[in-house]
Design goal:
single chain; two-stranded antiparallel ribbon; MobA-like_NTP_Trfase; nucleotidyltransferase; nucleotidyltransferase activity
């Protein structure tokens, strides 16, 4: 099959949560770990494949996901920054799904990412024929963000702490967005987590 088909979701879950002091991926919110929450949402969405990039604490995270129909790939260079996980995930996707139309890149510490949000990103890409569809919050573009496969070569050039945002800015005239006001809620510190629990 040479025809392009579907969108994958790549979940970047390799970081060691240094500011938090424990793996943020395994924090429990509403009776579910953050990594399981986003993985289940990705699987339920109209995605063609779900890839989870692990790094620090990989065995614990993979154990948490073992019953789900997603595919884990380990990033041995996770300590070099988020770009290495984007590269590992993109590389794995191109190898396993060479005809994929594009991918959504998501992180594991945004507790309000949902099936509806993933589907909205995909729908917008299909409706507008947009190469990049980002989530918009706090007057900026962020994750989750969808890239069509024409941007895969550019994603593979990212390095260090660079995230996909660099490419959203670089190709701003080719990007569109959908509102995701709760995208600004992410978990980096113990205070962030306690605030999330208090407000739930």
């Amino acid at each position: 099959m040479s025809e392009l088909s579907g969108y994958a979701i790549i979940i970047l879950a390799a970081g060691n949560s240094s500011r938090l002091g424990e793996p943020k991926q395994l924090l429990v919110y509403q009776n579910k770990t953050l990594i399981r929450h986003i993985a289940e949402a990705a699987i339920e969405a109209k995605s063609a494949a779900v890839i989870v990039v692990t790094g620090s604490n990989a065995p614990s995270i993979e154990k948490e996901l073992h019953s789900l129909s997603c595919h884990s790939v380990h990033n041995p260079d996770w300590e070099s920054g988020m770009a290495s996980s984007i590269v590992v995930g993109t590389d794995e996707l191109m190898r396993t799904h060479p005809n994929i139309a594009g991918a959504i890149y998501a992180v594991s510490d945004q507790p309000f990412v949902s099936v509806a949000l993933f589907d909205a990103l995909i729908n917008k890409a299909l409706e507008k024929n947009s190469g990049i569809v980002a989530s918009e919050y706090d007057n900026t573009f962020g994750t989750p963000v969808l890239f069509s496969n024409k941007y895969f070569p550019a994603l593979l050039t990212l390095s260090g702490a660079e995230g996909a945002k660099k490419l959203v800015k670089k190709f701003a005239d080719e990007a569109t967005s959908i509102p995701f006001p709760l995208g600004s809620v992410d978990i980096d510190t113990p205070d962030d987590y306690q605030k999330l629990l208090r407000n739930s």
